[in-house]
Prior knowledge:
Blueprint: H1 2-14, H2 18-21, E1 29-30, E2 36-45, E3 50-53, E4 56-59, E5 65-67, E6 70-74, H3 75-82, E7 85-89, E8 94-98, E9 103-107, E10 112-115, E11 118-121, E12 127-129, E13 132-136, H4 137-143, E14 146-151, E15 154-163, E16 172-175, E17 179-180, E18 187-190, E19 200-206, E20 216-226, E21 235-242, E22 252-254, E23 258-261, E24 267-269, E25 278-284, E26 294-304, E27 309-322, H5 326-333, E28 339-341, E29 357-360, E30 363-367, E31 372-373, E32 377-396, E33 402-409, E34 416-429, H6 432-449, E35 454-458, E36 463-465, H7 468-471, E37 480-501, H8 506-509, E38 524-528, E39 531-540, E40 545-549, E41 559-562, E42 567-570, E43 578-586, E44 590-596, E45 601-607, E46 610-616, E47 621-627, E48 633-640, E49 649-655
Amino acid sequence: MKSLKWLLIASFLFLPFAYAASAPASAEGISPLGGAAVTDTLVLTMESAAMVHNGQPYTSAQPVANMNGRTFIPFSSIAARYGYRISYDAQKKEAVAKSDKHELMFKIGSGFAYRDGVLTKLTGAAYISNGYLMVPLRSWGEMADSTIAVVGKTITLKWSSVVIPPKPTAAFAVQPSEIYAGQTIVSYVDRSTNPAGLPFVDERWDGRMDVFPEPGTYVITRQVEDANGTWSDPYSITVVVKAPNQPPVADFATDKPQYRIGEEIQYIDQSTDDENAIVKRTYTGNDKVFFEPGDKTVTLTVEDAHGLTSTVTKTVTVTSEVLYTKDEYFRLNTPPGSNFTINPDSVPKMPSIPYAIQSESSQLVRSNSPETLTQEGIVYQAQLTGQVRFMFHHVNKIGYPVRMYLLATNNNGTTVNVNTSSVGIGGPDPVVGNTGKMSTVRYLNAYQSNPAPKWMTVRPHQTVEILPELSKTPMKMNEVLTAYADVFSDQELQFHIVIVASGKSAIAELPYLPVLPRDGIHVRGTFYNADRSVVIDDALGDKEQRIVLGDKTIDRYLDGIDDTNGELQYNTGNFGTLYRMHLSHVSPHTLIALNPRGGLYIGAFMVNGRIVTASMMNNTQAAVLYRTGDTEEAVDITFTLAAGSNLPIAMTFLPLPEVRW
């Protein structure tokens, strides 16, 4: 009985396909549409969800089902294999499958369907099984132009597909982005592609020009043909061509027709450009203030984004009337951190203000000898406990990159707690002035912010790196490294300042490193009372005065010990010493300026909580630190003398001229 049942089903399936089965199955060939014709084969098995499409296995959403002697297949699964796109309309209970050839519409519970809008009777009504729409297999085959064969439980569907090769694309770009009529030479950048991988043999352009003669909007279109004779669709770009660019017009004015000696001049740029695209303005002769009478020639040149320029020259008249002398003007107007010219012979003639130094209990380690490193080794080592300020200043002449380390060894039987707080590092840098300035700037900033200490522990007989910031960047040949760091330990540690080649382990190398000899010029050692308070209660600024620092007479050098050999040392220049200066009574309208007496000085000072840098090449320059206002002020200055600079320095107090109009 079972065999008879399948025979009946097979007979039922074949009857509607007699016309299709009589036609030969499509072989691969050339379609009239120009694509390659191929035959798809789909093999199904009754009561199974297995599907084999062109030899590739798939799983159907539901098994092939028999309902009242008719065979049904899940709509979504069969449509996917045929390459149809499906959609559902829940309100109408309709399911639609679309391809490039047909649109098939099935309605749940209906024995009719639509093929390309034509009503078609089905061999059975579509129904829902486990949430999936089931459609009659024979009807699907008819509507999808298929042939069918049944052998036992195996059902084979075949249909012809046309694979049309993808077209190439004719993409391109137009450069530059801004095009000016009659001026811009336009280039066309080929960005065409061909999925078939074939070369291009021809192209067509419409609207292409190398130079567009008139402003306006232009559409440029391109097509390309590949070696298979396939043309791309047209690809178009719209470009806007602007009117020809005009050169800018240089112009400026001054706020007054004439000026006095020492009177500031305001230059008002009135230049114009047709695109408002002036990118560069260059003045010559436009001094902010003049100190000699006469007609002064001032020139302005402007340049637009296209390189066109314009120049204008005007005359500024300076009368013989004096508003400010040169010295008066720059004392009044030089901003903090900038320099003005000073008569170097006048500074030593200013009365020197005596001051007393209150030394505070503190420790300083200065690592500066040998300043020039010529071999790897231990630069300095000492047994220390409590608060210590380390100062490092060295230049690499070893011939290859090296790193500087601060190591600590615990020779105790108990664990030692150690921390770092304020740190300032300058370099590595080939310019010594840069490292001296930046190390003091960064240290003073850190000191002012009072950072939370970074704690670590050192176990008995353990050696650790204390300051990883110091070794982070290798010192290349001829580079300088300057640094300040505050370190605290609650028990004694043996500190080592070590130089080894970049790539080596400083801790592993430590037992084998020699202590480097001093260079006989610079300083290394451990110094005490390295924090100094200077309080001056006298009135300052009523006349020209000076305070001398780093002169070893008033500002006497710290004494200490070179712990590597036990020799007495003096901290020449007091580099690394921290000064806190309190000036109780600085008169109104007083300029506080710094003058280097020994030559180059590049450093930083914290004045009333603000960091001010000072960079002076010689004693003909003075750097502005502060100006008092209309009333007497107390001024606090914190600083450490910058490594790499020359001493002594003079802090001058200069009365400001009255403001004139």
